[in-house]
């Protein structure tokens, strides 16, 4: 039986993610983990690909763009509060904050985030800025 878990955002430690954003791991269960990602105003992340996880994102603050490529499919999506998207395993992606405020995203990782070597650097469309 899995324990009940309760936390607050302020209790979660912020650390640097492989893409250069700040990440707070909020909660974790055997099948998934929930984290908040923040990219400061006018910053552009490093492009990465996840080796073993799928992610679901919802934007909670800020504006920006997300580039993602999987095989021959490639697109850039406008990010704003309320936008939800998926990043399937093996998808290359990069994101950037625009409009003068930080971009904040809640993300679910399936299965849970396994550790530092999950995100592998790739070449994206933008030059990383500020990370």
Structural features, described:
With 131 residues, this protein is an all-beta fold. Helix content is 0%, strand content 51%. It has no helices and eleven strands. The strands form two sheets. A six-stranded antiparallel sheet has the order 1-2-3-10-5-8, with no helix packed on it. The mean pLDDT is 96.
> What is the name of the CATH architecture?
Sandwich
Low-pLDDT stretches: none
**C-alpha-based Rg, rounded:** 14 Å
N- to C-terminal separation? 40 Å
At the fold tier of CATH, the topology name is: Jelly Rolls
Task: Give me a quick take on this structure.
By secondary structure, the protein is mainly beta. It has strands spanning 14-16, 22-29, 32-39, 48-50, 54-61, 63-70, 73-79, 84-87, 92-98, 103-110, 119-121. The chain has one domain (16-113): Jelly Rolls.
State the main characteristics.
131 residues; 5-stranded antiparallel beta sheet; 0% helix; 6-stranded antiparallel beta sheet; mainly beta; Jelly Rolls; 11 strands
């Amino acid at each position: 039986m899995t324990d009940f878990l309760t936390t607050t955002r302020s209790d979660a430690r912020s650390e640097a993610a492989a893409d250069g954003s700040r990440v707070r791991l909020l909660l974790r269960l055997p099948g998934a983990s929930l984290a908040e990602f923040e990219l400061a105003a006018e910053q552009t992340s490093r492009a990465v690909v996840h080796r073993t996880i799928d992610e679901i994102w919802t934007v909670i603050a800020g504006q920006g763009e997300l580039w993602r490529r999987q095989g021959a499919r490639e697109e850039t999506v406008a990010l704003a509060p309320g936008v939800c998207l998926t990043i399937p395993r093996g998808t290359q992606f990069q994101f950037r904050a625009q409009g003068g405020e930080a971009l904040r995203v809640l993300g679910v990782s399936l299965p849970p985030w396994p550790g530092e070597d999950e995100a592998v650097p790739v070449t994206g469309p933008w030059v990383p800025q500020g990370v």
